[in-house]
TrEMBL record:
This is Thioredoxin domain-containing protein. Residues 1-25 form the signal peptide. Keywords: Signal. Residues 257-420 form the Thioredoxin domain. Pfam families: AhpC-TSA. It comes from the Bacteria.
Length: 439
């Protein structure tokens, strides 16, 4: 199924619904249908697998309602728009995707999760949803006693055509209920919710980006065997071994400057089309935080949630920040829309630039001082002299507990240290020397 250019399509859909309603009812227009307030259970069909998710709707009418995705303790709110008398459109905030559904006569929802990226081909994910069902996988009273308690840390090894680095799962089990997070070098899975039934386990998550599921078996020797599905036709097998000492590669050592470099420089357009360079006077003598992000990337969003309020609180101390966005379409006009949505939703006061198409090889080409580009997001911290002092790959969100606290502490300690350093006396003086190569 081709991705639908939705705004045009919804206008036609709305017109069709209104016209057909008028024909059927004569002069009397049918009443607009509503979504019942309360908790719902939805089910996606992902790679021939059912992926359940839960959400809550609040609001006496759709125009003032809030659609909230529920994942463990995490809550993500979205605005609901009406399409005609019996359909809804729920934009996934800064992600260029939406849930589009019809409210059936029996009150259920029947629809699709659609990409809204212009010109991007891909299949939609169909879903249905029923009101009043608070469970995710197993109806109350139908649980089977779990064969083991999976609480703890697990090292997960994945098998695919391309080499996939090991991941680390942090799980918590209370009776049949299972929650947790999967960490990898690019970031974390956000909070997952699921169950253990006998010797089988399953976890799912849907926070706005593509829904995902991890499911498998607990083997006789205590190891795990399973498969994960994310998006459309994306299945990857994995094995798991419980290991309290399991760790990912050091995120501070994955990306670094090539030998002979101390500095970084670039020029990209901002959202008005103006060329902005790290060597501009605005940044001289300042500590500068560079974020390489994409609005399609959930870990980038979580990192923005961390950085934006931090920057607004600390800007007067002599720090600047730049977000370089690499988007799903190589178009400044498209980036103005997507990155503009990100700016507005998270009150971003620092510069946002457009780097081009979301492609790791392209990032490496446009930032040739880096040894390689591993993940969106990547954080680069530059001191008052213009030297790169730290590069952090990925992002560990609040759900990771100790890992997030360690990151937050180290980030603030380094920034305090760099901001306390004296700015060079030549900070406002331009130089003709190459900005990228270290001296």
């Amino acid at each position: 199924m081709k991705t639908i250019k939705f705004l045009k399509g919804t206008a036609l859909l709305s017109a069709g619904l209104l016209f057909s309603g008028a024909v059927l009812a004569g002069d009397k227009e049918p009443a607009a249908k509503v979504i019942k307030e309360g908790v719902w259970r939805g089910v996606f069909n992902v790679s021939e697998t059912q992926v359940p998710f839960n959400f809550e709707f609040k609001g006496k009418d759709l125009e003032h309602g809030t659609f909230t995705l529920l994942n463990g303790t995490r809550r993500d709110d979205f605005h609901v728009q009406r399409l005609g008398k019996d359909s809804v459109f729920i934009k996934m905030n800064t992600y260029d995707a939406a849930l589009v559904a019809k409210i059936e006569d029996n009150g259920t929802l029947n629809g699709e999760y659609r990409s809204l990226v212009p010109g991007k081909r891909g299949n939609a994910l169909p879903f249905t949803a029923e009101y009043g069902k608070k469970y995710r996988f197993v109806e109350p009273g139908k649980d089977v006693a779990p064969a083991a308690n999976l609480s703890g840390k697990w090292e997960l090894k994945f098998y695919s055509k391309e080499q996939v680095p090991n991941k680390v799962a942090i799980l918590k089990q209370n009776g049949n209920k299972l929650t947790g997070v999967i960490m990898q070098v690019t970031g974390d899975s956000r909070e997952l919710e699921g169950t253990v039934q006998g010797d089988e386990f399953v976890l799912s998550g849907f926070t706005g980006p593509s829904p995902k599921i991890y499911k498998g078996k607990i083997n006789a020797d205590g190891t795990l065997s399973g498969v994960t599905s994310q998006g459309i036709y994306d299945n990857t097998k994995f094995d798991g071994v419980k290991d309290d000492k399991a760790e990912l590669p050091d995120p501070y050592k994955l990306t670094y400057l090539k030998e002979g470099y101390k500095k970084l420089d670039f020029t990209f357009p901002d959202l008005t089309g103006k060329a902005v360079s790290l060597s501009d006077d605005k940044y001289k003598g300042k500590v500068v935080i560079i974020e390489i992000v994409g609005t399609w990337c959930p870990n980038c969003t979580d990192q923005t949630v961390f950085l934006s309020p931090w920057f607004n609180k600390n800007q007067k101390r002599g720090v600047e920040a730049i977000a370089i966005g690499f988007e799903q379409k190589d178009s400044l006009a498209y980036a103005q829309y997507t990155l503009g949505k990100l700016r507005d939703k998270y009150n971003i006061k620092y510069d946002i630039l457009f780097g081009g198409l979301a492609d790791k090889k392209l990032v490496s080409q446009k930032l040739p001082a880096l040894n390689k580009f591993v993940a969106f997001p990547t954080t680069i911290i530059i001191d008052r002299k213009g030297d790169v002092r730290e590069i952090y790959t990925g992002y560990t969100g609040t759900v990771t507990g100790k890992y997030y606290k360690d990151y937050e502490k180290k980030f603030n300690t380094l920034l305090d240290q760099l901001l306390a350093e004296e700015a060079p006396s030549t900070a406002a003086v331009k130089t003709d020397e190459p900005a990228q190569k270290g001296k």
